[in-house]
Design brief:
This protein is an alpha/beta fold. Helices cover 39% and strands 21% of the residues. It has two domains: 7-122 and 307-321, ATPase, nucleotide binding domain (Nucleotidyltransferase, domain 5); 132-303, ATPase, nucleotide binding domain (Nucleotidyltransferase, domain 5, 2-Layer Sandwich), CATH 3.30.420. The chain has a five-stranded mixed β-sheet with strand order 3-2-1-4-8, sandwiched between helices. It has a five-stranded mixed β-sheet with strand order 11-10-9-12-13, with helices on both faces. The chain has a three-stranded antiparallel β-sheet with strand order 5-6-7, with helices on one face.
Length: 325
């Protein structure tokens, strides 16, 4: 067994990059954050990744040379065996051998996985999914990502797409663009639906907050007007609950298909809307799941929140390097 060393975990997103140094006893001992600035292309992003690693290590009072490895979770389609970003739309990357590039750039062995897979793995080892050998994690934000734990390990499937529930077609008879789970239940979809209703002269308190600038409607905006006694807004509740119900139906079908005992909901939208939203989803999941035994499934909120991806990426790197049991 190699000597235990700290590892750095990186959560690479389209807007931000988060870094965390994770100690051998699985504590977060150093952090950093950078803007992604994808418009500056691969070389610019790589420069910020290297700088972020150095900053996180400095906060942990170590140098990059003290690291046992680097784990990075990247958005999009990933081949973790080859360390390859097959396609990342929000980064505008295709077939980027990210693990190899970072290994050469930092002289530290780098391990790559999908960003939501990393977050789900982090929750499974240290968070709300701890102890569950079979688990679905669904992350809600600008889009919808998901990951699967089967028999205690991340499951990828033959084409590396296992768990991608966001692309499930829920409404096949609807026009293209509004058929899938992501096109109906992501924050983007919820805001688009709300704005469409506002433009149809439906009343909401949200307009008093954002005026005509609908780009200001974020997850926190929705949360302020969702199921809060002082601010509850009927239109926001209607739109968010409709999305929660569709999400619950999709997840309930997966629970039946794979006989899963636990589902973890994470991502910016889930964190903003909180327990009331999660409970609504759980209610529908249990209604849909078959047979009665599957209705005992637990639907829980992420406990690691923003750090799920950082922890997960570091843990994946530790596991693949042989330093994590």
């Amino acid at each position: 067994m190699p000597t235990a060393k700290p590892f750095v975990g990186i959560d690479l997103g389209g807007t931000n990059i988060q870094f965390g140094v994770v100690s051998p006893d699985l504590k977060l001992i150093g952090e950093a954050k950078r803007k992604t600035k994808a418009e500056e292309k691969l070389e610019g992003v790589l420069g910020r990744i290297v700088a972020g690693i150095e900053e996180a290590c400095a906060e942990a009072e170590i140098t990059p040379n003290d690291l046992g490895g680097i784990g990075i979770g990247a958005p999009g389609a990933i081949d973790p065996n080859k360390g390859l970003v097959l396609e990342a739309v929000n980064l505008r990357w295709d077939n980027v051998p990210l693990a190899e590039i970072l290994t050469k750039r930092t002289k530290i062995r780098t391990y790559l996985d999908n960003d939501v897979n990393a977050a789900v793995y982090g929750e499974n080892r240290l968070g709300a999914g701890k102890g569950a050998k079979n688990l679905l994690g669904v992350w809600l934000g600008t889009g919808i990502g998901a990951g699967l734990i089967l028999n205690g390990a991340l499951y990828y499937g033959h084409f590396w797409t296992a768990g991608e529930i966001g692309h499930t077609i829920l409404l096949p008879n609807m026009p293209r663009g509004i058929r899938t789970l992501e096109q109906n239940c992501s924050r983007t979809a919820i805001v688009e639906r709300l704005v469409k209703l506002i433009r149809a002269n439906q009343k909401t308190k949200v307009t008093a907050e954002v005026g005509d600038d609908y780009d200001k409607i974020k997850s926190r905006t929705l949360a302020r007007h969702y199921r809060e006694a002082e601010r509850e807004d009927k239109l926001v509740v209607e739109v968010v609950d409709a999305a929660a119900d569709l999400l619950g139906q999709a997840i309930g079908s997966v629970v039946t298909l794979l006989s899963l005992p636990r589902v973890v909901l994470g991502g910016g939208l889930t964190e903003a809307l909180g327990p009331v939203f999660v409970e609504r989803v759980e209610k529908v999941v249990r209604e849909v799941a078959f047979p009665d035994a599957c209705k005992k499934v637990d639907v829980v909120e992420s406990s690691l929140e923003d750090n799920a991806g950082v922890f997960g990426a570091a843990l994946i790197a530790m596991e693949r390097s042989g330093t994590l049991k």
